[in-house]
Amino acid sequence: MAGTDDDAVAAEDDALYVLTAILLTPAQFPSVLGDDYPEACAALGLAPVADGYGLVLGQDGDGARWTVVIDDVSLVAVAIATWDCGMEYELSPDERTVVAALPGWPLAVAVAAPGVPAPHDPAPELIDREPLSPPDTDTWGPAQRRLGADQIALQWAMWREQLDDADFAPADNGAPAEKGSEPTEGRAPSKARSGVRRVLAEAHAYVDAPPPLGRVRSSFAPGEARTLRADGPGWSMVARTDDIAFVLLDEQPGEVLPVGRGPELPGLLEALDKMAVRPS
Fold first, then answer.
1. How confident is the model at residue 176, as a pLDDT?
2. Both 119 and 224 in a single domain?
3. Are residues 199 and 265 in the same domain?
4. What is the structure's pLDDT at 14?
5. Are residues 102 and 164 in the same domain?
6. What per-residue confidence (pLDDT) applies to 185?
7. Where in this protein does the record put region Disordered (predicted)?
8. What are phi and psi of 155, to 5 degrees?
């Protein structure tokens, strides 16, 4: 997902060589930046406006990293979709759409503009705020937990095929469930079981009292299903409305906990899908 060598936009009177672009909207935002849309905006010092933003990441003529924030979300969405199809698209926003030019990049970018110095932060005397930098994902914590959930959502089939009946308690294998029983996470230790119960309780609470925008998102899945993503303090959940869920916890480093459908999960997922934000 990168622009052409000739892509450039104006940023504080300097040319910006576009490397990539990202959507920052209630339904689609870099989850590594926060559990919800307002938190992701706060990481960049932006107000969480309803229509969202497009983030254009690039380098100026001296090689310095800049993130140009624009309010033309549709333009960035078209550019990303075109690049994803392997085609070129010259992303050149109108200067009137520029909301801010922020030093640094909020995410790691693996490419660099040709013919300019290697990517670096702008000189301190040229900026009036600390440069943006990617969240630390070297150790387990909220940022890495959310990245893990992103990967499960992207590679659902791979994660799902690793499970068999033995990974779930009997009630999740099609056996009659006792009244009042709840979805289970199989062989996980008691601490993990307690964490999953807390996640399910907090997710239920979202249905009655909607959380900050973007905490629950719904996106396309094969067939009639939807992929659900929900996040909260210390947890992330990825689910298919016609299948199971996976839970990740800050308190369980690197663990992915499968939650069987049981008698309650289908209704919870249906309710969450109804209140979730969706890509336009």
1. 31
2. no
3. yes
4. 62
5. no
6. 42
7. 167-193
8. -120, 45
How does pLDDT run across 18-33, given as a tens digit for each residue?
999 999 999 999 999 9
Quick one: 28 and 107 in the same domain? yes
DSSP E strand boundaries for the chain:
8-11, 14-24, 53-59, 65-70, 98-103, 216-220, 226-232, 235-240, 245-249, 257-259
Q: Residue 81 belongs to what domain range? A: 8-126
Q: How many domains does the chain have?
A: 2
Query: Which token pair is 49?
Result: 């406006």
* pLDDT < 70 positions in the chain: 1-14, 165-188
The answer to whether residue 136 is domain-embedded is no
**What distance in Å separates the CA atoms of residue 215 and residue 230, rounded to the nearest whole number?**
5
- Which 3-state string (H, E, C) describes 97-164? HEEEEEEECCCCCCCCCCCCCCCECCCHHHCCCCCECCCCCCCCCHHHHHHHHHHHHHCHHHHHCCCC
Distance CA 18, CA 76 (A): 12
The per-residue pLDDT for 191 is: 77
In the chain, the amino acid numbered 28 is Q
CA distance 38 to 20: 22
DSSP 51: T
